[in-house]
């Protein structure tokens, strides 16, 4: 009887009110509760009620009341007596459901579909603690004053060192793996560990107590593995800097810590410049950072995409680290050309997120084996909608499209493939048509480049196309076996 039974009963509670049972937002929220895990919410609430409210007994008894609730609407008006800081509090089961539901939903710290009407726009679990969390207690609103977060692959001795130096008394500590979150605390020379997947059948089974820290460390790794992020937060502004231990671990063992590279980039991208600096000192650093670029992360994206999305400011630093390295070039080329399940390439992501670096990255990747033609193929990978990396580059800057193609100088067969892709419509407009609308001056040099003719010949050919018949505001023409979709073209 883990968090699952509580979430199922919370979903039942939402649907038990006839007045809102068919409300779309309520239906979606109830579905979300049963489809998704809320380990982060449960861990955070457990920590807050314990460390900052001193009401852990109330919280755990409230969860037990919900877990044991029969699916009977009449039961919701039954009074339940909960312990509260040495006293008791009588609440209806309905009131308990409402309070726990509000806590669980908001403290999840996400704005996913199903939660949107009930959470803050733009919130996620990486910014929630620092930017959105506050605590109303005894009429006073308190906010996080001190917040630290580290991530990586940690062996037992390193995890021990971090937990010791971070200091957990009266502080919230959440430990997160790529798939789960638990809470750890320390009080009166005892360690407490809460895992929402443990049995919620009694308060004794709901959390674990340790007197030996080494047993706590072993249990954490058993539950989560060694790829972790550790978040510590306090309401107290005056805290010592606990990060010297992490700096020391990076200095001594950065290659091992970076086994958790995807978690580092997702959870703590601000540490990535420091980590790259440490890798530069290692003889294997260049090889290692190159190897993660085409590697697949826990979320089925590549290391290259993680760097672009989470640490865009370090793309140049990564390139500098792998340049003049044949293995690095091959890894970069592979990362650019990999195609995900939606037919999106690394090249398209780069063009979308950091278009100004496109030429620099392509120049380096094209040094790889058959690099030019592999990049040309990646440019032409089509999604179901007709969109491509080629289209993305054109949207960002049509002049950049000409510059990129000019620098590639792909062979004739790939030039034809590129030209064909330029003619594929996306939302009713092909790249040729888009260029005509926004940058018509590059039509002639672009055609000349792709067909390996002089600008004069290209201009003559394009001018001869004034015979295009207009159909509404589009023209269709068959040329060299390709469909050309041109919009009001005038040669």
Provide a descriptive summary of the structure in words:
The chain has 491 residues and is of the alpha+beta class. Helices cover 50% and strands 14% of the residues. The chain contains 25 helices and 13 strands. The strands form 4 sheets. It has a 6-stranded antiparallel β-sheet, sandwiched between helices. The chain has a 3-stranded antiparallel β-sheet with strand order 11-12-13. It has a two-stranded antiparallel ribbon with strand order 1-2. A hairpin with a 2-residue loop joins strand 7 and strand 8. Helix 11 packs parallel to helix 14 (303-310) and helix 16 packs parallel to helix 19. The longest helix has 15 residues, at 93-107. It is globular, with a radius of gyration of 29 Å. The chain starts with a helix and ends in a 5-residue tail after the last strand.
Structural classification: alpha+beta
**What ranges have pLDDT less than 50 throughout 5 or more consecutive residues?**
466-491
Share in β-strands: 5-15%
The biggest beta sheet, please?
Answer: 6 strands, antiparallel
Strand order in space, largest sheet: 5-10-6-7-8-9
CA-based shape = globular
Radius of gyration: 29 Å
Counting copies of identical and different chains, the oligomeric state is single chain
Helix content: 40-55%
How many helices? The count is 25
Q: Distance N terminus to C terminus?
A: 73 Å
């Amino acid at each position: 009887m883990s968090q699952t039974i509580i979430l199922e009963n919370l979903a039942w509670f939402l649907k038990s009110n006839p007045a809102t049972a068919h409300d779309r937002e309520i239906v979606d929220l109830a579905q979300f509760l049963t489809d998704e895990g809320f380990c982060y919410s449960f861990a955070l609430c457990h920590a807050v009620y314990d460390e900052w409210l001193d009401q852990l007994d109330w919280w755990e008894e409230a969860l037990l009341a919900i877990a044991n609730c029969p699916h009977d609407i009449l039961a919701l008006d039954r009074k339940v007596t909960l312990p509260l800081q040495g006293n008791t509090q009588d609440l209806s089961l309905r009131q308990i459901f409402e309070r726990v539901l509000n806590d669980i939903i908001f403290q999840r710290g996400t704005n996913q579909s199903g939660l949107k009407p009930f959470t803050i726009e733009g919130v996620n679990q990486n910014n929630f603690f620092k930017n959105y969390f506050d605590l109303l207690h005894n009429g006073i609103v308190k906010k996080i004053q001190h917040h630290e977060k580290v991530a990586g692959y940690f062996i037992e001795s390193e995890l021990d060192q971090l937990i010791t130096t971070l200091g957990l008394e009266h502080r919230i500590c959440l430990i997160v793996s790529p798939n789960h979150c638990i809470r750890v605390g320390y009080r009166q020379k005892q360690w407490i560990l809460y895992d929402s997947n443990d049995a919620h059948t009694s308060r004794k089974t709901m959390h674990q107590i340790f007197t030996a820290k080494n047993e706590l460390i072993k249990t954490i790794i058993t539950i989560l593995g060694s790829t972790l992020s550790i978040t510590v937060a306090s309401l107290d502004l005056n805290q010592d800097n606990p990060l010297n231990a992490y700096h020391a671990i990076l200095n001594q063992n950065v290659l091992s810590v970076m086994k958790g590279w995807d978690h580092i980039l997702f959870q703590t991208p601000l540490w990535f410049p420091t980590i790259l600096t440490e890798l530069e000192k290692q003889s294997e650093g260049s090889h290692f950072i190159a190897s993660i670029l085409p590697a697949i992360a826990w979320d089925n994206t590549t290391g290259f995409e993680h760097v672009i999305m989470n640490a865009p400011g370090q793309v140049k630093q990564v390139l500098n680290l792998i340049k003049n390295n044949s293995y690095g070039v091959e890894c970069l080329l592979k990362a650019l050309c990999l195609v995900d399940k939606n037919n999106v390439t690394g090249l398209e992501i780069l063009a979308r997120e950091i278009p100004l670096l496109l030429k620099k990255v392509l120049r380096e990747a094209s040094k790889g084996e058959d690099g030019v033609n592999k990049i040309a193929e990646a440019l032409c990978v089509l999604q179901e909608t007709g969109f491509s990396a080629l289209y993305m580059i054109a949207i960002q800057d049509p002049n950049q499209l000409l510059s990129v193609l000019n620098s590639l100088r792909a062979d004739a067969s790939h030039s034809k493939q590129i030209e064909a892709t330029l003619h594929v419509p996306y939302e009713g407009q092909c790249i040729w048509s888009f260029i005509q609308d926004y940058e018509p001056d590059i039509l002639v040099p672009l055609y000349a480049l792709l067909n390996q003719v002089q600008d004069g010949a290209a201009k003559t050919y394009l001018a001869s196309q004034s015979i295009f018949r207009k159909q509404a505001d589009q023209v269709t023409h068959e040329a060299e076996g390709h469909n050309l979709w041109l919009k009001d073209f005038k040669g």
